[in-house]
Amino acid sequence: MLASLEMWLSDVPWLRLLAFCIDVTLKGAVICAVAGIVTLVLHRSSAFVRNAVWVFALVGLILLPALSLLSPLWNLPIIPELTSWGAASYTPVVDKPEPVPFVGPPVAAQADRSALDNPGGPAPIGVPWYAWAVLLWITGSLLYLCWYAVLHAGVRRVVRRAQPAGTQWTTTLGEVAEELDLRRRVRLLESNELIAAITVGIFRPVVVVPSDSHDWTEDRRRLVLSHELAHVKRWDTLTEFFALITTVVYWFNPLVWLAVRQLRIERETDCDNAVLRTGAKPSDYAELLMNIASDLGASAMPVWRMSTVSQNSNLKDRLMNILNQRINRSRGSRRSAVLIGVLVLALVLPISAAGIFSARTDAQTDDKAQQEEKAKSDEQLKKEQMQKDEMKKKEGVKKTQMSADEKMKMSWEKIWMRCSPQIKGLLLISLHRKYYVVGW
Fold it and tell me: Domain residues of the chain, as ranges?
């Protein structure tokens, strides 16, 4: 089984896969950098616009590997050709080595001959360094995906154990949904395993609130539901899924993690602005965030806890934005979102169509293969010509020997014909006696 696995590893085009990974990584870094520059330019715009930039940037990162599989329309010689990297460190053995004459005991000679006749035995097949690099990338993606699967299983377990919320929650839910102009249907559940509210589900959204929230005031319930329903209206669970795919594919790229972090910061800021647009007082909402942050910090939180109404990582910035009256809190129109999406796609498509070094690598590899094939054919023709010349030489020597023998035979026949009968008789008697004595 190990030998078959090694054979499979040796047949995979690892160098081409590494070139594809480097190509996608560099292009993804360019997209993240451009999105960061755009958000800095739009720092006076609303959080909705900046968040839309990051969302479309993540969508571009997801589409980038598929678009990069197409042949590049033009090539940018930025990185040196990769075939020289692999050729210097790894040279696969293609032909079977010739057996070396062994001088020694017969048992050792038999063992050495069996080792030469069985190349697929216990001897390991070399795997180049770039193959291990690609395997490391795949392993990291799988481990991160498994970790997220464990977290998602914990969230689903909490939702499955939760109970339907009481009438006081459902009444507030209907009023807040009408204020936010939310047309989607939302389930509201209560769980004794939570301290703060969470929102889960992409197409069937569910809001889960703590079971000890019966003592909350009406204003606190309204503020909490306003924030969570703002997530539902914005389809933030879908954008969080995009963030998951992006981090799984680009887990080794720090710029992608920074882009995902900025996406979540702008998302929470936009949800805070949505709460304030319903008429909530900034001081009351800021006090609510501080109370929830205090409750979360005082208790041991499970590892599967998703982002809630309060995030301690950027709580200070959120409070400053809530209390700042000069911040643009407009939601933005669909036209602006469509415009941002078109601009991001206009950036992603040219980047995907440009080849950094893969086109050059393929071309040079094809030329090198053609040169090697031509050299092999020339060498084969040379060997065949040498064999033909040697055969002709042997045939010439053979003809020369045959002609000499025939000449000698003819000369002896002429001499025999010229001899007299008496001499012929004496020669026959002498030959007869000679062969008789030797035979006896």
Answer: 162-252+263-328
